Amino acid sequence: MALPVVAIVGRPNVGKSTLFNRLVGKRIALVDDRPGVTRDRREGTGILLGTEFKVIDTAGFETDDPETLPGRMRVQTEAAVREADVALFLIDGRAGVMPLDEEVAGWLRAIDTPVIVAANKAEGSAGETGRLEAFSLGFGEPFGLSAEHGEGIVDLFEGLRPFIGREDEESGGAEDEEEEGGPLKLAIVGRPNAGKSTLINKMLGQERLITGPEAGITRDAITIDWEHGGRKVQLVDTAGLRKRAKVQDKLEKLSTIDTKRSIDMAEVVVLLLDATRGLEAQDLRIADQVLEEGRALIIAINKWDVADNASSLFNGIKAALVDGLSQVKGVPVLTVSAKTGKGIDVLIEAAFTLRDQWSKRVPTGELNRWFDDAIEAHQPPAPKGQRIKLRYITQVKSRPPTFVIFGNRLDMLPASYVRYLENSMRDDLDLGPVPIRVNLRMQKNPYHKRARKA
């Protein structure tokens, strides 16, 4: 059964994201002193006194023209409130009721969603005057709270309970169980304006994320639950990644950290390129970072429907990846159009296949038969006439596949031979183009100490 939904609304800079983080118990929404930090609506799961509910953080309510960026942000806020079970209208208790608060109140009165009001930044008695002023908004008794310090959260929950409470027998059930393996965690990354949000909107079939010609619209990493062909997917839209030297603004630095955290939490990462700009050095840096984090990678070339010299562009990108991503061979390179939706089905199928390979465990017997054959086909070198003995291999984990090779004189084994083993694994054990970790462990010589004593 779907969780009840609480949408947090209010004018800019009243502390909506801070309250969101408090309710979900994690610092996942970006917070800064300046107004307008939140743009897309962000969802999380909160739990208070045993009751679980969905929380939506929305952009600060603005009255700008719908065609402007603030206007497009307001459209997302309006959609969130209309879908919610209750709107939590937040004001700044220290500042009191402002003219824009009254405009927000007027809009909320015109819709059917129930509303409760809370005066934030009310540590001690600091916001009591503002809380009392909020009676004038016409939504009943306002609650005083401090999202930053956690004061008043229990009282707030009591106000929310009539709208989000569920009887125990209604919560959970066999129908809520996820399919084996859980949803595919798929993050979309790339440089600014590559079309990441547009691509996700096309997948969802709705304008869920704010898009536009302005670079850097997305700031938070936004996670959205989706289904494709009956299979569950968690799509993650991320902020564009620029060269580190160009990132000076504090908020952009926070966005970059948030994107990197999303890469670390993903199973498969799609690096979206702009076909009108081709492959740049920054794209290779992002791809390298994804692989270093041990995540499966797909390269998707967007805006393919308007690409010039498409065949030459595609071959050029593939050739550059061979040189630039030597640690993993055969990373899928696909073409998509976020505008028309062409290529999305192929992209998702490739992501599921990669997730399976990334999660694969090879039976011990099969693994060591492959190991013996690989060594027989290509013996390790004997530097300075000293034979390197490879005894056996074991898989210690998956996601990504990680192996340990045991033997003697492994400190003398060239990196090129380890790469040979990795590439053979990909081909012979169907591990595909996913990161593989190979660790070398030398066995102790039981006669070493005895020989020294002699």
Task: Describe the overall structure.
- The chain has about 450 residues and is of the alpha/beta class.
- The protein has three domains: about 5-175, Rossmann fold; about 180-360, 3-Layer(aba) Sandwich (Rossmann fold); about 365-450, 2-Layer Sandwich (GMP Synthetase, Chain A, domain 3), CATH 3.30.300.
- It has helices at about 15-25, 70-85, 100-110, 130-135, 155-165, 195-205, 250-265, 280-290, 310-325, 345-360, 365-375, 415-430, 450-454, and strands at about 5-10, 40-50, 50-55, 85-90, 115-120, 145, 185-190, 220-230, 230-235, 270-275, 295-300, 335, 390-395, 400-410, 435-440.
- This is GTPase Der.
Characterize the biggest β-sheet. 6 strands, mixed
Number of domains: 3
H/E series: EHEEHEHEHEHEHEEHEHEHEHHEEHEH
* Total number of beta strands: 15
CATH architecture of the largest domain: 3-Layer(aba) Sandwich
The CATH superfamily of the largest domain is: P-loop containing nucleotide triphosphate hydrolases
Task: Give the uncertain stretches in residue-range form.
Answer: 29-39, 167-180, 247-252, 450-454
What share of the residues lie within helices? 25-40%
How many DSSP H or I helices?
13
Q: How is the largest sheet built, in terms of strand order?
A: 2-3-1-4-5-6
CATH topology of the largest domain: Rossmann fold
Determine the N-to-C terminus distance: 74 Å
Strand content: 15-25%
